[in-house]
User: Which sequence fits this backbone?
């Protein structure tokens, strides 16, 4: 008999995300009869998502129940799992911030763009609500920044938090496809902190597969990089990723090569530099790459709207029922049905990754079942990678969190002063001041006790 | 009855240092009859020092015995204490390196100037010799870099190592004199790592003395900073130190404000910037300040030579028998005579300073007696100082040491890439290459497996 659970989705307005979740749930018979509560502050998007999800379940013959609410409290009441996918302020505010910082010498802004306030504040609120309203629920953090956010939530609340990120799987898929390997023969391990993970183990049919990568670099990378249309993601086998591989001796996995800006700032000096390292467009987070991403997103939204507007359309045709590859539903299944499995999670370290404090959230494989989530003690990340990449990421995260928790903007100055593209104290100060004055950052400016919020 | 010990001084050619040591020993009756063995590779300087020291002891009516040798092994045989004050290559090579790096965008070179190879190699050799020849001896590390060197020696050998630095005492003296306080009423604590220590406690007659500093800043600092002739040291109450105090909430003590270059790089962009923060000359390590320092050193050497050349001169007149304020002889006295005292030491952390690994050498007060050196568990350094200054110093030290221990120059690239004044990967690479090719760096280039050593 299937286990019936109640799953709350916070920030469910992303139809792509929410339909992906429904699809995976419909494909998991052992969770049949469960309830999904979609919650979003935007009533129109919420209605679209909930209606499409209900249609999807009906078309699949699933007895999943779909509810919707604009109230977080109502969504969380009696939830067994809470999926937090909310992005405070959406992409618009981030884009304005990037454009502003560009004028101050930080091409494409600071990384992570979600930092400093809005997401932290929202994440902490969600975790506090979980602690209060459904303390036994697992809080599955899906939106970024997973590293900062999960560390913040587990330190500041008693909520059971786990961060999930699909980046490593996208990376490994791109690697496997590009090298022409049979996915079934590949095994890997890539520990670290979210968006800074390193391929410490990479085997193909039991043998070390790094020599296959070396041969690809030698023989095929040049042609790969000169293609007019970039491969999926543009990231995993970019010149930047291979350059980091040469420097560190391990391949950075998934988003790592582009996401470790504070430590690998020299790839991000300007648009031309980004194009050199992520040809031909400059990568996912470049001007051109991001525009392509948003256009793709718009296309997906338009497709969803078209289906939503036509009650006779079959949702399962627009979104064929194939597993998404996301780990959210497998994690819920493993815990709810006490079905032991291994997943890649972001949880407090507790000794799993050597050299990182216990209360910092690391990304490691874990054993998951009804007993909870136990991170695996992985083989250490080599010293050169720890000193050059992982520990600086940790320090930068601690500065951002300490700034948020204390409300002391001097921590944010520390973040900026340690950014490799900062040329003077004055530049850092002016940039921070400008960000605080940006429309939409009123609450942030108040939090840090400085002038701001549309005042300039 | 005094305890008779054998003290070996490695790198004893500095007459100022060695005469200071003799002077302190002559003033410590409880060590009467002990033997000092001066060792240096330079026979002329060695002869001068040993002769002057013997004359000093005779004039003082002390029964200290003075020996000399050019052989380290001979000096260390049966030593109870080994004082290492050697600077590999002397100031000349360092100056050439600074001039070279200046051309590559690093005004006055990289910090610490003693890093990367020469001093590490020498320190490790000395520690290995101590381990082999006099394993029960205490190795007192006096020359820089104390932080890197003591961490290296304690990790790589079984020698009992303690680093001593007079910087904090110079700093506290300058502070006390400038604020017009009675030194006897002042108590302080300034933990951290060598050259990055912070005044966590500062009391005057039992009361918090920070308000006295605040009043001085408000009322007297402007006049102090506009003086044509800088105060002693130019460091402790410089605009840079007070700026850091405002930023961190604690006063950096002694050499800290100028020594934490990698983290406070914005004070060191060029000569004009340095003059602004360390008026009027730009501080001890500026072009002008360093020239003054070397001239002062030359003057002292000339004075010493004049006394040495005149057998009828009284050495005790040129160097009046007052305690130097150095901790070396008090430490020897405390251990040899089992006289419990409190000293400021650099030893492996072992939990004394929260947030720093156990095998990293920290600068903390310690209880010292015949039982050895026990670091005191100090109150934590505030998070803002740890994240902004102490932990980055630790990371940079680990990169330098890992580079030295592995011979992998990519660690040195990490050091340069994290330097706030580095503008591009190419700049870092060209700078490292130039340093390796510098005459005198042949062994370093071989160690790192790169081209170098006068090859350009």
Assistant:
């Amino acid at each position: 008999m299937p286990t019936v659970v109640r799953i709350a989705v916070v920030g469910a307005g992303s139809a792509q995300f929410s339909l992906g979740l429904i699809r995976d749930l419909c494909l998991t018979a052992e969770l049949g009869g469960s309830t999904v509560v979609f919650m979003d502050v935007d009533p129109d998007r919420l209605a679209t998502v909930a209606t499409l999800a209900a249609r999807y379940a009906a078309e699949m013959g699933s007895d999943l129940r779909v509810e919707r609410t604009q109230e977080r409290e109502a969504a969380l009441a009696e939830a067994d799992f809470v999926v937090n996918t909310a992005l405070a302020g959406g992409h618009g505010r981030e884009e304005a911030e990037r454009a502003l910082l560009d004028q101050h010498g930080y091409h494409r802004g600071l990384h992570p763009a979600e930092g400093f306030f809005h997401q932290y504040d929202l994440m902490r609120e969600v975790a506090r609500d979980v602690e209060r309203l459904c303390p036994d629920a697992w809080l599955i953090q899906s939106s970024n920044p997973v590293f900062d956010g999960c560390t913040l939530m587990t330190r500041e609340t008693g909520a059971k938090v786990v961060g999930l990120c699909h980046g490593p799987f996208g990376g490994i898929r791109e690697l496997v496809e590009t090298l022409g390997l049979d996915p079934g023969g590949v095994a890997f391990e890539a520990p670290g902190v979210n968006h800074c993970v390193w391929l410490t183990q990479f085997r193909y049919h039991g043998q070390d597969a790094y020599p296959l990568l070396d041969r690809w670099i030698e023989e095929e990378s040049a042609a790969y990089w000169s293609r007019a249309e970039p491969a999926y993601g543009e990231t995993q086998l970019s010149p930047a990723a291979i350059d980091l591989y040469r420097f560190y001796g391990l391949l950075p996995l998934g988003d790592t090569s582009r996401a470790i800006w504070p430590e690998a700032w020299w790839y991000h000096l300007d648009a031309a530099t980004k194009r050199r390292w992520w040809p031909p467009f400059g990568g996912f987070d470049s001007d051109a790459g991001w525009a392509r991403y948003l256009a793709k997103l718009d296309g997906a939204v338009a497709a969803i709207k078209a289906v939503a507007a036509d009650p006779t359309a079959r949702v399962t045709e627009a979104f064929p029922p194939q597993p998404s590859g996301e780990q959210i539903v497998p994690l819920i299944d493993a815990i709810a049905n006490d079905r032991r499995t291994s997943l890649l999670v972001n949880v407090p370290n507790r000794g799993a990754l050597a050299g990182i404090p216990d209360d910092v959230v690391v990304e490691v494989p874990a054993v998951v079942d009804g007993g909870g989530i136990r991170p695996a003690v992985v083989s250490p990340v080599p010293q050169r990678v720890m000193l050059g990449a992982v520990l600086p990421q940790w320090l930068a995260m601690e500065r951002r969190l300490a700034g948020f928790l204390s409300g002391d903007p001097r921590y944010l100055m520390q973040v900026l002063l340690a950014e490799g593209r900062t040329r003077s104290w004055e530049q850092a100060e002016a940039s921070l001041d400008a960000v605080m004055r940006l429309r939409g950052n009123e609450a942030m400016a108040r939090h840090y006790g400085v002038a701001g919020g549309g005042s300039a």
User: Anything to note?
Assistant: The longest helix of chain B spans residues 383-406. The two ends of chain B are 61 Å apart (CA to CA). Residues 167-286 of chain B form one domain. The mean pLDDT of chain B is 93.
